[in-house]
């Protein structure tokens, strides 16, 4: 809302002599609250200027963040505990959770500051990096374009190769499950199943709004909870039967940190999720980030600690391999994990697709934007399937 000249005259603006804080909340004759900076200008608040056709609420953002971190990587955390030891893994896991939360805070706060300074409603990860350099010292401003390109290449490489792993995991999980009841399925060409999965993903990956992916993240989280519950049942059924080590020395710590950090961090999805929110609910004590990270760290710590405590030195690369293949409950867990990863694909796929489209959009006539996006997503799914 704009402030008229008469309203500006009625504003009680503090002088620099008695100024005590960077921002002062003042009121005009109509009791309209306006944030004023020391120079007497209205503070630009990015969230108030966002025009969102499909805004995301607290729950939707929370589900997306939980799903972006609770992926297949969590199944390898018990093996990471085996590398570091039970006690080192416990405190190391919590430390990594705090570290990941802190880095996300830095990213989001930095994005909000450069948005306010540049009067920009929202910025993505690469956009934030570019804008930081543009608003920085003169010596580094010329590098802003290079920094943006570097961040985009890193994100595309990370997430596009990540969804390739997802494709392999889905096909292997389902083939293993089917082959138990249908032995002839073991002789299927693995690419036959991948082609079926590819066609389904080509349709689902046409979803372009973060808001519309919330139901799929919900399904993925429910399936993950089912798999964790069944895994927990097998873990608790034999606690204390094997020998474990409190610490395995420094040699296993690098492997532990790399595994847990790779599995837990989902920084590429942070800015798209935050930018989809019309209200500043992402940060804060009870904000989306802290709420999601508490759940994420709890699951990582529980699965890692209890998984290694149950199987000890017999802990496999993924905890699912320690479950009995001939038990129905274990088979349900196997299928639930496959379904969870399947419905997580779209969220991970959103990052590289969004970056690629932003690069191509200006080179395509506007009337062909819709069909071009459709073909871009089809081609990207086909390529990632062919490379698996």
Automatic annotation (TrEMBL):
The chain crosses the membrane at residues 58-78, 84-108, 150-171, 191-207, 214-236, 248-270, 282-308, 328-351. Residues 57-385 form the Amino acid transporter transmembrane domain. One of its GO terms (cellular component) is vacuolar membrane. It is a multi-pass membrane protein. Its main location: membrane. It is found in: Membrane. Pfam families: Aa_trans (PF01490). One of its GO terms (molecular function) is L-amino acid transmembrane transporter activity. Keywords: Membrane, Transmembrane, Transmembrane helix. It comes from the Eukaryota. This is Amino acid transporter transmembrane domain-containing protein. PANTHER family: AMINO ACID TRANSPORTER, GH04538P.
